[in-house]
Amino acid sequence: MPIVGYYNGQFVTPNSGIVPLDERGHQFGDGVYEVIRCYGGRAFLLDWHLDRLWMSLQAIRIAPPFTKDECATLIERLIVESGELEASIYLQITRGSAIRNHLFPNPAVKANVSATVRPVASQIAKEPGTLLMMADERWANAWIKTINLLPNILAKQTAHDMGADEALLVRDGAMIESASSNLWFVRDNQLITAPADRYILNGITRRFVIQLADRLGIPVRETKLPAKDLATVDGIFITGTLTEVFPIHRVLTHPDVPYVSLPDVTGLQQLSADKCQVAWEARDLSLVGRLQSAFADAIATFAKSDR
Ligand code: PDD
């Protein structure tokens, strides 16, 4: 199947070079996005994604170029064009194209809408993963789903370089999120996850798992868990649109991480994975397994349900 791209009303191949150089997303990262999962040819939790997209647009003062219904229709059309049943839809809206200037274009220009649809496979069967603990160096508005992801990218790449799957981000002494997923702890048969304040992205999967836990009778505490309490935790998992519910069996630390605040940034390349230390190992991931199965069941039901 062809991978579908979309730019301002046209269906294109993703690398067709259609974005102008004076595009504010391209030059400033001046835009917002959503990643939506398609199961069985249908966009999962689409209304929640659209509500969050509208919140992000409002937060950075971009006028939506269409209504939510028109946006939903576009997403459905993209899925049909792709012919995919299991796919990831990336949708980006930027402030538009104008000669480079930090000030918003005046008069305002129309926002640019771009999208891609790509096939993806479920993560559910993957083996438990590893996190690398590091300082959260993002700005104080992580709740906005902006395309400015440099701190997230550096954090996740560092985690990968050290042999981990994801970063465990610590802000003000608390373990609040991962670089591209929400972070959860299991302790005494309860789930703990950071509250959806300005410092984390209120994940759509996070919201769904809160509902799922409620249905399963598993208590959820939305509170910030101090990094010093890591040893008290029985299990960890991360959630996200593409990550789904992913169990974690190990947390690493590294003596030279956090690194971006170090004066010698060239030191970045010299990090050695040999220096990583195991800070935590899972005691019990059975509750995470239960949630994973419930999540898989919910998806299967959704994928089969009537349109
Ligand atoms: N990332 N936290 C961060 C920083 C994220 O980037 C994401 C998702 C999440 C999980 O949110 P949701 O459940 O709504 O996907 C949490 C997406 C998928 C990405 O950037 O590719």
Topology diagram in text:
Elements: E1 4-7, E2 10-12, H1 24-28, E3 31-39, E4 42-43, H2 46-59, H3 68-82, E5 87-94, E6 112-119, E7 129-135, H4 150-161, E8 166-171, E9 174-177, E10 182-187, E11 190-193, H5 204-216, E12 220-222, E13 225-226, E14 235-240, E15 244-253, E16 277-281, H6 286-304
Parallel strand pairs: 7-8, 7-15, 11-12
Antiparallel strand pairs: 1-2, 1-6, 3-4, 3-5, 5-6, 8-9, 9-13, 10-11, 10-14, 14-15, 15-16
Bound molecules: N-(5'-phosphopyridoxyl)-D-alanine.
CATH topology of the largest domain: D-amino Acid Aminotransferase, Chain A, domain 2
Total domain count: 2
> Biggest β-sheet: count, sense, barrel?
10 strands, mixed
Uncertain runs: 259-263
| Portion in beta strands | 25-35%
Let me know the average pLDDT: 93
Distance between the termini: 22 Å
Bound molecules: N-(5'-phosphopyridoxyl)-D-alanine
